[in-house]
Amino acid sequence: SQQGEEDPQALSIQEGENATMNCSYKTSINNLQWYRQNSGRGLVHLILIRSNEREKHSGRLRVTLDTSKKSSSLLITASRAADTASYFCATGHDYKLSFGAGTTVTVRA
Amino acid sequence: DTEVTQTPKHLVMGMTNKKSLKCEQHMGHRAMYWYKQKAKKPPELMFVYSYEKLSINESVPSRFSPECPNSSLLNLHLHALQPEDSALYLCATMTAQESNTEAFFGQGTRLTVV
Questions:
Q1: Confidence band for A1, pLDDT divided at 50, 70 and 90
Q2: Closest Cα to residue A86, out of A103, A71, A67, A66?
Q3: Which candidate, B77, B58, B66, B79, places its Cα nearest to that of B32?
Q4: 3-class DSSP state of A22
Q5: Which pLDDT score, from 0 to 100, does residue B97 have?
Q6: With contacts defined as CB-CB under 8 Å, which chain B residues touch A104?
Q7: Which residue of B has its CA nearest to A43?
């Protein structure tokens, strides 16, 4: 079942710019994860942030989590053409991993 | 080995056919998942196996029948499917269902029902 909303639904940016996408969720969570999917293939795990963490970094990725607002954001800095993909947030609740609607990011060269 | 291998990559089947999707992992993960993904939509959970036992069935129609013969293999048996069942079917694994850690996904099987 779909956990929540992501916005924007689609994002088009120039190479080198930053991309920010947001995720809202409905239930209490143990952690929130972000995944990338290229062209309808398998999903690749990017980063996991636990419910007691507020911010996490991994390379060019920065994730924030606000449990009071039930929301998270993913920032990709200095984007590259290879970052073109769909990005999904996912939450673990009741031993299920449920995905948000996703943001499609296009990075123009 | 952090791979989850799904076969076949593509499958076209008629509505009266019986076919199976396969998923294999050798990471020692004890939770295995089937997801269905329609175009431009997020993956939707179908089934979860935990320690080779069916843990979650998200009210999936009986024309989809999962099977976990051992800790490395997960099958999805298909019978009498409808055209609306055409989708990308994704297998995923996790250390354990209760671990709530990262999931590893296979590349999926693109299923077309004609």
A1: very low
A2: A103
A3: B66
A4: strand
A5: 74
A6: 40
A7: B105
Contact status, residue B79 vs residue B69, Cβ threshold 8 Å: no
Residue A2 has a pLDDT of 47
Is A100 in Cβ contact with B105 (below 8 Å)? Answer: no
Task: Report the percent of chain A where pLDDT is more than 70.
Answer: 96
Lowest mean pLDDT among A28-37, B77-86, B98-107: B98-107
Give the C-alpha separation, B35 to B42, whole Å. Answer: 10
- Minimal-distance CA residue of chain A relative to B60: A1
User: Under an 8 A CB cutoff, do A45 and B103 touch?
Assistant: yes
Of the candidates A41, A96, A101, the beta carbon closest to that of B107 is on A41
CA distance B114 to B95: 36
pLDDT digits (tens, 9 = 90+) for B35-75: 999 999 999 999 999 999 999 999 999 999 999 999 999 99
